[in-house]
Amino acid sequence: MRILLVYCHPCPESFTAAIRDRAVAALAGAGHTVEVVDLHAEGFNPVMEAAERRDYHTPGLNEQPVAAHLAALRRAEGLLFVYPTWWYGLPAMLKGWLDRVWVPHATFTMPEDGRPIGRVLTDIRLVAAVSTLGSPWWWWRFVMSEPGRRTLLRGLRPLVHPRCRTLWLALHEIDTASAGQREAFLEKVGNRLGRVR
Fold first, then answer.
1. C-alpha to C-alpha distances, 136 to 65, 172, 179, nearest whole angstrom
2. Domain limits, the chain
3. What percent of the chain has pLDDT over 90?
4. Each residue of 61-81: pLDDT tens digit?
5. Nearest alpha-carbon partner for 127 in 196, 26, 40
6. Burial of 29 (0-12, 13-18, 19+ CB in 10 A)
7. β-strand 33-38 against 2-7: which pairing, if any?
8. Rounded-to-integer distance, Cα 193 and Cα 52, Å
């Protein structure tokens, strides 16, 4: 499987970077091809400017500012997001990547004649995410209703293959996690992604 790993963290020494590296190793070890998009390293601009917004619904024009990212999406058979959860959701740069790259016609069809948005990226059969969170699991799930997970796994699923599988892995209370807990989570990530087929 061709996996597009979208990575978002500004610090190269972060635990999130260790997660990314473990994910790449596990997927490659399972025979998958992994393409990494490091949003901070490439200086991705998450801000949609006025001209880009005006062209948002125009086929072709809406693809021009993000052509390389769309090409990577079109090559992908699986998507993996690796990022920290900040303020219960996606970091601004990752949210901006969704805003700017997932444009109409290229990644989904617009609703018309009473039909909902339609699927375009039907080669994508897996959408997965690995994140760290400061909050305890019960607070994030029951009080906050899992915003980041819902955005990526539920929000993107209607745009890809109808039988797309989803996977969510999270380390909660990262701010107080011990070295042992962090290593155990890395092992979990490696074991789980190593079983992706």
1. 39, 5, 18
2. 2-194
3. 97
4. 999 999 999 999 999 999 999
5. 196
6. exposed
7. parallel
8. 36
